[in-house]
Fold this sequence. Notes:
Strand content of chain A: 25-35%
Radius of gyration of chain A: 20 Å
Low-confidence stretches of chain A: none
Oligomer: homohexamer
CATH superfamily of the largest domain in chain A: Dihydrodipicolinate Reductase, domain 2
Amino acid sequence: MSKVRVVVVGCGSISKYRHIPEYAANKNVELVAFVDPVIERAEKYAELHGGKAFADFETMLAEVKPDAVSVCTPNALHAPMSIAAANAGAHVLVEKPMAVSDEEAEAMIEAAKKNGVHLMVGHNQRFMPPHVKAKQILQSGVLGKVLTFRTSFGHPGPDGWSVDGADSWFFRKEEAIMGAMGDLGVHKSDLIRWMLDDEVSEVAGFVGTLHKKGTEVDDNASCLLRMKSGAMGTLVASWTYYKGEDNSTILWCENGVMKIGTHPDDQVILELRNGTVEKHKVGAISTNDKQETSGVIDAFIESILTNTTPAVSGEDGRASLKVILCAFESQATGKFVSVN
Amino acid sequence: MSKVRVVVVGCGSISKYRHIPEYAANKNVELVAFVDPVIERAEKYAELHGGKAFADFETMLAEVKPDAVSVCTPNALHAPMSIAAANAGAHVLVEKPMAVSDEEAEAMIEAAKKNGVHLMVGHNQRFMPPHVKAKQILQSGVLGKVLTFRTSFGHPGPDGWSVDGADSWFFRKEEAIMGAMGDLGVHKSDLIRWMLDDEVSEVAGFVGTLHKKGTEVDDNASCLLRMKSGAMGTLVASWTYYKGEDNSTILWCENGVMKIGTHPDDQVILELRNGTVEKHKVGAISTNDKQETSGVIDAFIESILTNTTPAVSGEDGRASLKVILCAFESQATGKFVSVN
Amino acid sequence: MSKVRVVVVGCGSISKYRHIPEYAANKNVELVAFVDPVIERAEKYAELHGGKAFADFETMLAEVKPDAVSVCTPNALHAPMSIAAANAGAHVLVEKPMAVSDEEAEAMIEAAKKNGVHLMVGHNQRFMPPHVKAKQILQSGVLGKVLTFRTSFGHPGPDGWSVDGADSWFFRKEEAIMGAMGDLGVHKSDLIRWMLDDEVSEVAGFVGTLHKKGTEVDDNASCLLRMKSGAMGTLVASWTYYKGEDNSTILWCENGVMKIGTHPDDQVILELRNGTVEKHKVGAISTNDKQETSGVIDAFIESILTNTTPAVSGEDGRASLKVILCAFESQATGKFVSVN
Amino acid sequence: MSKVRVVVVGCGSISKYRHIPEYAANKNVELVAFVDPVIERAEKYAELHGGKAFADFETMLAEVKPDAVSVCTPNALHAPMSIAAANAGAHVLVEKPMAVSDEEAEAMIEAAKKNGVHLMVGHNQRFMPPHVKAKQILQSGVLGKVLTFRTSFGHPGPDGWSVDGADSWFFRKEEAIMGAMGDLGVHKSDLIRWMLDDEVSEVAGFVGTLHKKGTEVDDNASCLLRMKSGAMGTLVASWTYYKGEDNSTILWCENGVMKIGTHPDDQVILELRNGTVEKHKVGAISTNDKQETSGVIDAFIESILTNTTPAVSGEDGRASLKVILCAFESQATGKFVSVN
Amino acid sequence: MSKVRVVVVGCGSISKYRHIPEYAANKNVELVAFVDPVIERAEKYAELHGGKAFADFETMLAEVKPDAVSVCTPNALHAPMSIAAANAGAHVLVEKPMAVSDEEAEAMIEAAKKNGVHLMVGHNQRFMPPHVKAKQILQSGVLGKVLTFRTSFGHPGPDGWSVDGADSWFFRKEEAIMGAMGDLGVHKSDLIRWMLDDEVSEVAGFVGTLHKKGTEVDDNASCLLRMKSGAMGTLVASWTYYKGEDNSTILWCENGVMKIGTHPDDQVILELRNGTVEKHKVGAISTNDKQETSGVIDAFIESILTNTTPAVSGEDGRASLKVILCAFESQATGKFVSVN
Amino acid sequence: MSKVRVVVVGCGSISKYRHIPEYAANKNVELVAFVDPVIERAEKYAELHGGKAFADFETMLAEVKPDAVSVCTPNALHAPMSIAAANAGAHVLVEKPMAVSDEEAEAMIEAAKKNGVHLMVGHNQRFMPPHVKAKQILQSGVLGKVLTFRTSFGHPGPDGWSVDGADSWFFRKEEAIMGAMGDLGVHKSDLIRWMLDDEVSEVAGFVGTLHKKGTEVDDNASCLLRMKSGAMGTLVASWTYYKGEDNSTILWCENGVMKIGTHPDDQVILELRNGTVEKHKVGAISTNDKQETSGVIDAFIESILTNTTPAVSGEDGRASLKVILCAFESQATGKFVSVN
């Protein structure tokens, strides 16, 4: 088969650290264009990897007719650009959160279906070796049923991560719509659904802007989740963990506890009631500060080449997004919110 | 001054491991009676420490006329016995939760005031050296404002702790009223109020019975707390941490993070944005499994001898209880609850 | 069902530390007699656990008619006593090595079959949690095929272990027949057969008396083993590891290495070519100096109660013994020996 | 004295990592030529260090008339080239194994003697600080007599080490003659002879090709060694330690144990029966993957300058080779082989 | 304000590693000249940072008329150059020891005062975070009174540090006047005065040249110090700590001990009588071998910009020098010496 | 030979923890009497070990006529009692300091010589395995010459050690004459003389009473020592190390450093300039708080049985005492003192 002709749209940090290098390393891919309103950014990558540079997305679609696009733009553009790409016959890999409303997410899924293209969402947590290992252990049954859990993701905020620093679109309400919840919280709602092979049934959320200045988006959220299975737990997303950065998950189960991402050397630690302790050193959990190869791009290309459902489908992305949207609704209404 | 004549009411584990030995070690105390409906338990301590044994509380009050009583009975008896004792002119140390409703708590405070006796609540977390140290550090200002927090208390449940094992009153709804929340959650609502020198303003709570059999009381609760200062966080109480027992608190602040009770050797760890790390080894945090001298009894006796307000007053106990009661209300109504 | 009436024959250290206490702890067992030519030893246990004391085995058999016997006597008596017991209708648990020749072992199996009783051999290594875990991991396939291995068992010798110290039967050729090989080597031939689920096909052995004085039995043996699967490795048994005691096994496989019993905390360590490391803390490996509950007795009683083949059958014991006998033959002939 | 004019013959990895840089660092040496059938390799070093490049060994000998040569060619060429060099009046440093038969080794020694030149073999293990330290400790007598030992050398094979990768001469029977035994085993036979100051008297060897594809040379060998002193032990060479690489030696002695190369920080650990433990951090043991300065080249030049017997003489090399050859014979005949 | 025009006089190691880079990093500074009799050294920095190069100090003063000078010349030149600079209207930062006699120190202070310029001494120990932290802890009172102490500074000598190696002026009596005491001892007399906020009252000193060849300056000194407060302790300076380099201070106090610079990770360790242990990781203590930003230059520039007394005044430097001079006097007279 | 008939004089802590149990464990000894003015103490041991109890020393001498006595009385009695015992024909083991003046020490040596009895001094530091090991290493020459050293001994004072607590004779000037110097300092002057095989030539000492109340004896001393070999160092004795107890010695030598008693696991650590590090775990150094078998008693009995000079002779004790006396003289005169 000939190579998949890919365009990366939006040339910020997530493109720089993950999409572009991982496409470049995939031998079934040809990077044919880069799009960014700041044209110099697109040009830099075009120079580096070949392909053209565009400031305008529509122009690119018309001119390049790509096989696939990676949508790495601010949150508010995820849905319109993904739909436009699908309508232009391109497979779509969209960053998380896949959209900023459930209606948008639904429309994206529809557009992909209608045009016979694949739609994948960039929930990279699923591919990290510690999470893969943890899921295997859970499925082995050694721990019994999950009773309660805690999953959290906190770092000092996108000020230090984005190519635009404190001026990043991450802080602009109209482009980002959500803050820490869209950046980090949706990662953990997706992770917990996937790892427990369960769905969230009810959400309560305290969401607020506690410390970042000059922004209306949330910099912190603490949520309660009740799962369909009856398990319950907390999900925390924070942009104000100025020290003690954290991307960890702990599961208390009938037969013991599993700690994921709590120790720098042993990423999965299993402690059973019978005294058994297992420590698994399976590779670091990626954080914004320390990027590991995500596996997302390879999975996306694989789904195109084999014409199979992507590892993280549009439906997956939609369900994980819905949890986050329910948390916002909970904060707004002061009530627990049932997930559909 | 002559010795304070004390009676211990209820001869279960908390009396066995803390009240009785700590009274016995206080040279200003004379243990004059022990009360328990299982009279053999009372008699065992009377034999050991002197004093009389009673099966009936009222009989004891009339006969002994104690200077002070420790109320260590099931939760539902805390208020009536405390009020009766106060009316009999005795100072009262009542175990947590001080009562099972806010009305009861209010009545207890009134009864003490009316009778000119001291009322203290057994919130021992405040006396543990790691918590004392953490509060000092917070007050020093080095961390700046607390932004978010996580406080949790989990163990395998009272099955292994109570003198009656799985048949304990802890599991009988009519005597206990509440489960893990009354046993553990109220410790943490008290701790977070005291440590942050702040009040809880709003609560959301998921409270449920996930795993213990044959009981209607809660074995797990996950709560969101918003403080008057704006800080927010999670409070978790669990009787199903079958491994990974936990009595820890983490505070993420403007200048760094403070971890309390997360490491067996260094009970307070301070990590600042500027790279500074401080590790404080100040003595273990007590758990049900590993009892440390609480300091509660000495503080109670001190308040009697010096006629000063006890270190944990009735008002303190009431405010900490209210947080827990709000969590139950939140679960019942599906709404956030303001702590008036 | 009524209790299994058990007699322990030979009241030395293995009876003292493992057979007697484990029978005593098994609620389906009644200890009905103890046999030892030094009658005081038998009497001590009879006093402790009830039952009668005998100096003579045949007298006991005739008088007691036990349901089952544990044969814990010097090696040379294993076969004759086991056969006599089987002929008397008793199930037999015999210590390792089950016999001192293949003919004896065959006769024991025959006797058990003829009399319809169970014959089990005390190869306790199979029951130790680290070995159980290691076998599970091997069977999971994660390591691929075993290529080479090293298994060894060494301690300072029975001088410090036997109730008779340096005067022990362990050093008397006519009673022990073999030394370190019968004491330790046969444990490892059994372990490697069982763990790899493979049979030894060829053996070379250097066996000698290097350091113990006044004895003709071997105090050291180093062997080469070739397995039916093609894997090959070394098996070492030593009574002269005066420091650096060792009961470890390392398997080098297609995908990495598994180290069993090489680290005091993590008894099974898995290191894969892909960088993954797993550390399993599953309970200590028992040594002569530090006895753990063996599980052997419970398995023996289980086989009687359920009338199923014992976990370590006479055939198992015979095959493991044959490896050791081949090593002696190799030493004697200067040739490699095929394990027919 | 003027500088020693040296030629390096064979420009593969051992020349690249050890011979050439160590000659270049020795101020008494002038590198006057490099020889390799792949002339570009020779030219590269000639350019770097001065001197001429040759594709043909004989031409070089005739033209350059070197003072000394390093023979770093495939095993089968060691003897003929060394003899030719000696006959041309050059001192010879030959890599291990010095030859592929005892006759060759004998002829090399003869040639050197006849021509009055020095012949040294590249057994670098003797120069590594941990081995030097271990020998000192043995000689001090603190351990008493060595009773048993284990020495092994395993790594993932020359596929990853040789300049030609999997196409290396190491895998071609006609050039290499032997595999892991010639590459690694002969290192350990030399080490154990030298460290114990003892000679091997009898050998049993299992030698085979267990896992490497497309080669007839051995990738694994497990041997039993009996020493003249009576000590016995195992020697293992492996090209299939895909993890758990190992170049370690353990000596169990009358007074305790000495572990060499078993711990990354403390390369020599002494544990005595009296409880004393000594840990010696004396510098890493070199492996193929992590090269340390060998000391071999300096010792060779020293022997030339001072006209003294080299630190590893031809006789040493021959005796160490003979052990390996006996292992091959043992495998071929199924018998133990006496080393006389 | 316009930039401070600075000249660095003496272009040896202290200028290279600390003064020049720290001035270059201070945005309020313009480096206008470099002075060194070896003009190439001065020229190198002029090329790198702009400004002129001079071989002669007087010529520079006349020509450049700097705002400030750093005097980094051999000890004997500290006073005359500082005085000349002050008389030329320049602020002065002089390296330690500020002078080689008390009279010189006094004259320097006078010259600065007369000319209205600031005089600062380069006692960088005061700025190191572990020392700052230790002083804070002492001042908090938690340790009570200091009773005894030990402070030492040892390394292998300036042979390895100076740009001139073993030919350094450090070893030439007429330029250095003092050896280890002027290089290291005066650092510790300043540190102990500052940290304890106390003055030395009496000194006994053994000062000698124990190991360095071809020099008359001291390479070792061991001193006893008695403080005005009554505390007493030892001060050691050494150029012959060939291993075990050390810049540590331990204070034994009424309530426990504080160890500063004794552990590589935790630079300040507090151990109290009540069992409390605090470990502070606050940044490494600088040694000659491992330079950290000193803070000295920024403090000097700050004092100029704000016209405030420098953090280490001439009076400070004089008092710290006097302790050292008393030690020399003690050695010379065989008597204890009162520090006036 | 018949048993040595020994009397222990003074039944305080040193007798309780070391002399009496070590005599009792020595099979060549018969304990025939115990002497203490508090007769109950003597009687307690007489009851325990046989022999008679005396309140009066002279009465005992006359009545018992012992072969040997251990003098464990307050310092001021060491000389008169030792001389009396010698005159009565008894061998003498006297605790340190052997006397309180050089004249007394000389007289003791004379008395022993005149009466043909052995005189030994209880300098137990020499027998501790770490010190023995350190001396061996020094003597091996690997470190070269000792240049400087630091030796110190500090604990919280005899308040917690003596049978009489704070009322101990240790604090009474007339009985103790010296404080920390006699208790601890003399141990270290003896150790440094013995370990370096060198004599002290010059002493400066700051001796004072810094913190103990109600006593005139010294609780702290810091000394400078210059050795005949030219080495110099500090010796510190303290009764106010309330934490950070210390009995350590560090030697900085030509080739590296040796640290003795600085690490709880590795009592002797050798770090050489060439990077070599040796850690020796050879058994703990005894402190007042943690008593190890001293070896002193066995050595004393050995000297009697073999009629050889004791391991620590009177001359040794006198020389070690003289160092301490010189420190007192130095403090008194404000001058360095030559050790004649």
